[in-house]
Design brief:
Length: about 625
C-alpha cells in the first residue's frame, strides 16, 4: 500500500520534466541487451486478462515488444511494450512512464499512438500498448535504393522531428532501426524510451546509441538542443546513401573524434549537393548544422529541384490535435484526490464526482488526463460513454462490464464470473460468447426481472472491486437512459456508506431544460447531489491568458500576438474544444502554417475575423459550418 501511495504522488508529467536524467552508466546499460532480464513471454499467453500474445517483434536493452490481440478492441492492430527488468528500479520505471506520457500527448501520422498503461502488482510486469506498425525497419525497406527513394522516408521523419521539436521534445535515438516503413510507404519514428521533454536546454547526460550520438552529448556540453537529433538523422542518411557507418563515428564503445566531421564515401551515385547536406548535418558544431528539420527539407528541395512539402494536410492538423493540458490543473487534482481516497485509502465519503460543463469545455480531455494518471498508479480504469442514439437501456454499461470481465479473468476471479456471468450476458451479449455459463432463470414478471437485473449489476460492480479496485468512468450522462441511471444511483448510494474500492467519475453537459423539464441524466445528478452521494465539479471557461497558452502550445510558439489572443478568446468564449476547431480551420486554410525552424504561426493571424456567435454552439458540425464566413 505504501508503494502505491508513493507512486500515486509522483505525477509522471512532472517527472518527465523535472526528474533525473539518464546517467552515463545508465546510457551504457541502455544499449546493452544484458539489461533485459525478464524471460520472453510465450506466444498464446494472455496478459491482464485481455492481451493475447501473438509474436515477439523485438527485444532491446530496455525491454521487448510483442504483437498482441486486444480482446476488448480486436480490430485494432496492437503492440505491447514490456519493461525488461523483472523488478525495475525507480529510474527505469520513471523513464518508461515518461515515454508513455510523452507519446500520449502527441498525435502525428509519422508517430505511433499509445493506448493504455498497466502495472501488474503480483508479477511486477509493467507495460503499455500502442499501435502495431506492420512494416520493416528503414534500412530493410530501402537499403541499396537510389538517393531519390532514400529521401522520401527521410523527409517524413523530418516532419515528425519538426513536430516533436515544436513540443520541446528531443528524441536522442534517431537511427534506422527506430524508423519503420509500412506497406503503403509511411515512415514512423519509434522508441521514445530516452526522449526528453526539455524546458531549458542544457544539463543533459549522455544517452543514445553509439555511432549516432551527437558530439556535444559526448563532450558533456551544457547546451544540447534539437540539432542533436539532426546529427543522428545525418548519420542515418549517411548509412542509407553509402551503405556503411562513417569512420569517424563508428568506433566501438562511446568513442568519437568530436573535432572532425565524417569522412564521405566516394560514390558517384550521390550528387554533390546531397554530399554537402550530409556534411552539414553531421558537422561537429551544432551551430553549423541546419537550424531545424524544416530547414533540412528546404535544402533538399533547393538541391534536388524536387518539391517536398514542409507539411502535409494531415501533419498540419497534428499541431492542433496535440495541445497542452491548460487551465484545468486544480480540477484534475481534485479528481485525483478523490480517486486516491476511495481506491487507495478506502475512505468513506461521497460515492462519486461528475464533471459538468458546457459543450466544448474540456470534459473529455480532463477524463483522459485522469485515466493516464490512474493507470500510472497501477489502478484499473473502466470506462464507457452514453450516446444520444442509444436504444438499449443498459447499453453503455455493457461495455464497462465487458472490460471488467477481462480484468477479473486476469485476476483469477473465475468464481465471481461463474456466479454473475449469466446475468452479465443478458446485459451485454458480446461478453466472450465462448464462455460456458449457465442460463439465468427467468423472472416472475418483466418488472421483477428488471429489478433483479439492476440489483445484480450493482452487486457485480461491488464484488468486482473486491478483487480489482477500479475507477468507473461514464461520459455524456445527459444522454443516459433511465435503467442505467438507476444502476448508477444505487451504486453511488452504496459507495457513500461503504469502503468499496470504486471511484465513480462521470461527465455531463450543463443542464438545459427542454419545455421546462430537465433530462433524466440531469435529474439523476441533482438527486444524487442532494442526497450527498455525488459531488458536481463544474468546469468554467478558460481565461484569456489560458486560451493564449493553449493556442501557443498547439502552434508550437512561445506566445501569440495579443490581438490574436483577444480575438480567439472572444470567438470561442474560452472553451478549449472551440479553440482547437478555430485553429484547425486556420491551419486548413493556410493562414497558420509551419514555418522554417520548426515553429508555427503567422504574423497576419491577428487580422483574422472570427465568428462572433460562439456561446450557443454545441455540436462541432455547427461550429465548423461558420468557417466559410471567415475572412482574413
Amino acid at each position: 500500500m505504501d508503494d502505491r501511495r508513493s507512486e500515486w504522488a509522483n505525477d509522471p508529467t512532472r517527472t518527465a520534466i523535472e526528474g533525473p536524467r539518464l546517467t552515463r552508466a545508465r546510457a551504457a546499460t541502455r544499449t546493452s541487451a544484458e539489461a533485459f532480464v525478464r524471460p520472453a513471454i510465450a506466444e498464446g499467453s494472455v496478459l491482464a486478462g485481455r492481451y493475447q500474445v501473438e509474436q515477439r517483434l523485438g527485444q532491446g536493452g530496455m525491454g521487448a515488444v510483442y504483437r498482441v490481440r486486444d480482446t476488448i478492441h480486436p480490430d485494432r492492430p496492437t503492440a505491447l511494450k514490456i519493461l525488461g527488468a523483472a523488478r525495475p528500479d525507480r529510474e527505469a520505471l520513471r523513464r518508461f512512464r515518461a515515454e508513455f506520457g510523452l507519446l500520449a500527448q502527441l498525435t502525428h501520422p509519422n508517430l505511433t499512438p499509445v493506448y493504455d498503461f498497466d502495472t501488474q502488482d503480483e508479477t511486477g510486469l509493467c507495460f503499455f500498448t500502442m499501435e502495431h506498425v506492420d512494416g520493416v525497419d528503414l534500412e530493410s525497406a530501402i537499403g541499396g535504393a537510389g538517393w531519390r527513394d532514400v529521401l522520401v522516408p527521410i523527409v517524413a521523419v523530418c516532419r515528425a522531428l519538426a513536430f516533436i521539436h515544436s513540443r520541446r521534445i528531443i528524441h536522442f535515438d534517431v537511427k534506422p532501426s527506430n524508423i519503420m516503413v509500412t506497406a503503403d510507404g509511411t515512415a514512423k519514428l519509434l522508441d521514445f524510451g530516452i526522449a526528453e521533454l526539455v524546458q531549458a536546454v542544457g544539463g543533459l547526460d549522455l544517452c543514445g546509441t553509439p555511432g549516432f550520438i551527437a558530439p556535444e552529448l559526448l563532450q558533456g556540453s551544457p547546451a544540447v538542443d534539437r540539432r542533436a537529433d539532426l546529427y543522428s538523422l545525418g548519420i542515418t542518411l549517411y548509412r542509407l546513401l553509402y551503405g556503411r557507418m562513417p569512420g569517424a563515428s563508428a568506433t566501438p564503445g562511446l568513442q568519437s573524434d568530436s573535432g572532425r566531421g565524417v569522412d564521405l564515401a566516394v560514390d558517384d551515385r550521390v550528387p554533390s549537393w546531397l554530399n554537402a547536406i550530409v556534411l552539414r548535418l553531421t558537422d561537429p558544431s551544432p551551430a553549423a548544422r541546419f537550424s531545424g528539420a524544416n530547414a533540412f527539407i528546404d535544402a533538399i528541395n533547393a538541391g534536388s529541384g524536387l518539391q517536398f512539402a514542409l507539411q502535409t494536410d494531415e501533419t498540419r492538423q497534428s499541431y492542433v490535435l496535440s495541445s497542452a493540458f491548460v487551465g484545468r490543473g486544480t480540477e484534475l487534482d481534485r479528481l485525483r484526490s478523490f480517486v486516491r481516497r476511495r481506491v487507495v485509502e478506502k475512505a468513506v465519503g461521497f460515492g462519486g464526482i461528475c464533471v459538468v460543463g458546457d459543450a466544448g469545455a474540456g470534459k473529455s480531455r480532463i477524463l483522459r488526463e485522469l485515466r493516464h494518471r490512474v493507470q500510472f498508479a497501477g489502478i484499473a480504469f473502466v470506462e464507457c460513454d452514453c450516446y444520444e442514439t442509444d436504444e438499449a437501456e443498459l447499453g453503455p454499461l455493457g461495455e464497462a462490464l465487458r472490460q471488467l470481465v477481462y480484468l477479473l479473468d486476469g485476476a483469477g476471479a473465475a468464481d465471481l464470473l461463474q456466479a454473475y456471468g449469466p446475468d452479465l450476458v443478458r446485459v451485454a451479449p458480446s461478453i466472450d460468447p465462448g464462455r460456458r455459463w449457465p442460463t439465468a432463470p427467468p423472472g416472475r414478471s418483466p418488472a421483477a426481472e428488471r429489478e433483479r437485473l439492476l440489483n445484480r449489476c450493482v452487486e457485480f460492480l461491488v464484488a468486482a472491486a473486491g478483487r480489482v479496485p477500479f475507477v468507473f468512468s461514464v461520459g455524456d450522462l445527459q444522454w443516459a437512459r433511465p435503467a442505467l441511471l438507476e444502476v448508477l444511483r444505487r451504486l453511488v448510494a452504496e459507495l457513500s456508506s461503504t469502503r468499496v474500492r470504486i471511484a465513480f467519475v462521470g461527465a455531463a453537459r450543463e443542464a438545459r431544460a427542454e419545455a421546462g423539464v430537465p433530462a433524466p441524466g440531469h435529474r439523476f445528478l441533482d438527486l444524487a447531489e442532494a442526497e450527498g452521494h455525488l459531488e458536481l465539479l463544474h468546469l468554467g471557461t478558460l481565461s484569456r491568458p489560458e486560451v493564449a497558452s493553449l493556442a501557443a502550445s498547439m502552434l508550437g510558439v512561445d506566445e501569440l500576438p495579443a490581438v490574436l489572443s483577444d480575438r480567439l478568446h472572444a470567438a470561442t468564449s474560452g472553451r478549449p474544444f472551440f479553440v482547437e476547431e478555430v485553429l484547425r480551420a486556420l491551419v486548413e486554410r493556410g493562414v497558420a502554417a509551419v514555418e522554417t525552424g520548426a515553429t508555427m504561426g503567422d504574423v497576419e493571424l491577428g487580422n483574422c475575423r472570427f465568428p462572433t456567435r460562439s456561446t450557443r454552439l454545441s455540436p462541432s458540425a455547427s461550429w465548423l459550418c461558420h468557417r466559410r464566413r471567415w475572412r482574413c
